[in-house]
Amino acid sequence: MKLMWTFLYMSSLLCGISAFQEQPLKKRNVLDYTDADIEKLSEEWEKDDDPLEPDELPEYKRPPAKIDFSKLDMTDPDNVLKVSKKGKSVMMFVDVNPELSEFEAASVLSRWQSNLQNNHIVAERYPIDSKRAIFKFSDGAQAVDAKNFFITERECSHVTLEGQNYIGQHASASTVKKLEKMNPTGKVEKVKKDEKKHTEL
Fold first, then answer.
1. Is residue 35 exposed (0-12), middle (13-18) or buried (19+ Cβ within 10 Å)?
2. What stretches of the chain adopt beta strand conformation (E)?
3. What is the mean pLDDT of residues 56-82?
4. pTM for this structure?
5. Which of 2, 94, 139, 160 is deepest in the core (most CB within 10 A)?
6. How many CA atoms are closer than 13 Å to the CA of 88, on its beta-carbon side?
7. SS3 labels along 62-108
8. pLDDT in tens, 101-133
C-alpha cells in the first residue's frame, strides 16, 4: 500500500513538472526561467536583428582578413607578423633583468604599460611572476612595435612573442646562454645594439 502511494505521488509530481515546462514562456513567471529558456529567448530576439558588422563580432566569429602574400616582404619577419596578426589577439611574455628587486620589477612593468598606452598601443598587463608578465594586445600588429620597444629598454631581459625569444639589448651573457639552452626548438634572436628598427616610445 505504501509503495502504491509513493508511486502515485511521484507520477503526479512528474506530470506537474512536465506540464509546467510545456507552458508558454509568456505565461510563466520570469523567476522560474531556466538557462535554456533565457538562451531560447535571446535567440528569438536576435533572429530579426540586422547582422552585426564584422568589427562588432567577437574575435572568434570574425571572418579572417585576406592577406596578399605577393605584396608582402617575406624577408622582414616583423612585417610578416604585423600583417598576419592584424586584428587578432596576441600575448607576449616579458621578463625583466633578474638583478632587479621585486618592487623595481613591478614598477618597471607598470611604467612600460603606461609608455605603450601613451603611444596609443593598447595592452593589458597580467603579472605571472615577480619579474615576469604577460602583455595582451587586442591588435597583434601593435605587439611588434611593443616588442621593439621592450628590447631596447635597459631593464628588459628578454621577450617571447609567437614562440620566438628576443633578447634585450642590455641583457647579460648568462641570460643569452640560459635562453639558448631552454629553447632548442625555437629561435633566439640577439638584437644588435646599432640596429635602428625599434620603435621610439
1. exposed
2. 90-96, 123-129, 132-137, 156-161, 164-167, 188-190
3. 74
4. 0.62
5. 94
6. 14
7. CCCCCCCHHHCCCCCHHHHHHHHCCCCCEEEEEEECCCCCHHHHHHH
8. 999 999 999 999 999 999 999 899 999 988 899
Kindly tell me the number of DSSP H helices and DSSP E strands found in the chain: 6, 6
Place of cell 611604467: 111
| Partner residues linked to 181 by β-bridges | none
- For residue 15, what are the contacts with CB-CB under 8 A and spacing of at least 6? none
Q: How far is CA 13 from CA 5, 7, 35, in A?
A: 12, 10, 22
Separation between Cα atoms, residue 111 and residue 154, nearest integer Å: 13
pLDDT tier at 92, thresholds 50, 70, 90: very high
Helix (H, G, I), strand (E, B) or coil at 40: helix
Separation CA 8–CA 1 (nearest Å) = 11
- Torsion sign, CA atoms 160, 165, 171, 177: positive
Q: Give the Å distances, CA to CA, from 29 to 20, 23, 32, 118.
A: 11, 10, 5, 51
Residue 15: Cβ-neighbour burial (10 angstroms; 0-12, 13-18, 19+)? exposed
Residues in CB range of 18: below 8 A, 6 or more apart: none
Return the half-sphere exposure (C-beta side, CA atoms, 13 A cut-off) of residue 16.
6
Host H or E run for residue 118 = helix 102-118
Give all domains of the chain, ordered by start, each with its CATH number: 2-47 (no CATH), 80-190 (3.30.70.260)
